[in-house]
Amino acid sequence: MMIERILVIGAGTMGRQIAMSCALSGYETLLQDISEQALTAARTDLEAWAASRVSKGKLEQPDADAALNRLAQSTDLAASASTADLVIEAAVERLDIKEQIFATLGEHAPAHAILATNSSTLPSSRVAAASGRPPQVCNMHFFNPALVMKCVEVVRNEQTSDETVEAVTAVATRLGKQPVLVNKEIPGFIANRMMGAINAEALNLAHAGIASIEDIDTTAKTALGHPMGPFELMDMVGLDVIDFIAQATFAETGNEADKPHPLITEKVQAGLLGRKSGEGFYPYS
Ligand code: 3HC
C-alpha cells in the first residue's frame, strides 16, 4: 500500500523527532498533541536542529525549509486522523490514554490506515482491540535520539497482518532507518532487554562499590566500544523512564531481577531524573 501522509501523536522528545524524520524523508507529516505549548516547543526545537544541521553543512537550506513546510501541527486528534495513511503514536505511556487514542483512530482514520505505537512498554495487542482493526496495528519502536538512531523495532502481535508489517518496514527503510522484526511480543522487545541487562550489571557493580560510575562508563566506552556508558545513557533516556520501563517489565514478568534497581529508585525519589532535570548520575549545566 502507498503511504504518503503520516500522523505522529505526541510532540515530546520522541514524537517530535520521529515527525521530523518523516518530513525529511518526503512524507506529508502532521504532528498532533493536546497541548499547543508542546507543539510550539517542538517546532522551536526542530527549527533549531535544522538550522544547526544547515550551519554544519549536513543539510541544504532548501531541504530543511521543505521538511519544515511538510510538517504541520494540530491539537485535534479526530481531524488529524482523518487523512492519515499511517499513524505513529508516541503519547504518554499510559494504557487508558492509549486506548482512548486508538479508539479515536479506529473511528476517524481512513479504513486502510495502519496504526502503530512507539511504546516500548505496552505491546500493541493492548491497544489493538480499542482500534477495531487489530490486523492493522503493531509497534514501531524508535530510539532516542530518533533523528540519529538507526534502529526501528517492528513488533507484530498475534493478529498483525503481513501487509501491515511490510508497509511499516518499508516506511522505516524510507526514513533511512534499519528496521528489525520482532516476531512475538515480549516485554522490552530486543533492545531494551539488552540495555536492561547491561544497566542492571552496571548498577550492581556501582552499588557494591566495585568501581565508580565514571570508571564503569569509561570501561563500556573504551573496552566495549559503546558510544555512551550505561550511566550516561540512563541520564539521557531519563531515570524516570528507566524506572517506568523496569516497573512495567516486572509487572509483566514477575521476575525480581526486572524490578527497578534501588539506585534508580533513590534518584527518582530525589527528583534527579538525568539530563532533563539538570542532574542524574552526573550533574548537567
Ligand atoms: N537530538 C538530535 N540529534 C542529536 C542529539 C539529539 N538529542 N544528540 C546528538 N545528536 C546528533 C548531533 O547533532 C550529531 O549530529 P552530526 O554528526 O550530524 O553533527 C550526532 O548526533 C553526534 O552527536 P555528538 O557528536 O554530539 O555526540 P556523539 O557522537 O556522542 O553522539 C549520540 C551522540 C548519538 C547520542 C551517541 O552518544 C549515541 O549513539 N548514544 C547511544 C544512544 C542510545 O543508546 N540510544 C538508545 C536509548 S534506549 C531507547 O531510546 C529506548 C526507549 O524505549 C527508552
Q: How are the secondary structure elements laid out?
A:
Elements lengths: L4 E5 L3 H12 L3 E5 L3 H20 L5 H10 E4 L2 H5 L4 E4 L5 H14 L5 E4 L7 H7 L5 E5 L9 E5 L6 H13 L3 E5 L8 H17 L5 H10 L7 H8 L1 H15 L8 H8 L16
Parallel strand pairs: 1-2, 1-4, 2-3, 4-5, 5-6, 7-8
Antiparallel strand pairs: 6-7
Helix pairs in contact: 1-2, 5-6, 11-12
Bound molecules: 3-hydroxybutanoyl-coenzyme A.
Primary descriptors:
binds 3-hydroxybutanoyl-coenzyme A, 285 residues, oxidoreductase, 8 strands, 8-stranded mixed sheet, 12 helices, alpha/beta
| Major β-sheet profile | 8 strands, mixed
The distinct ligands, each listed once, are:
3-hydroxybutanoyl-coenzyme A
- Average pLDDT works out at 97
| Overall radius of gyration | 19 Å
Task: Describe the global form.
Answer: globular
- Within the largest sheet, what's the order of strands? 3-2-1-4-5-6-7-8
Distance linking N and C termini: 47 Å
**What percent of residues are in strands?**
5-15%
Uncertain regions spanning at least 5 consecutive residues: none
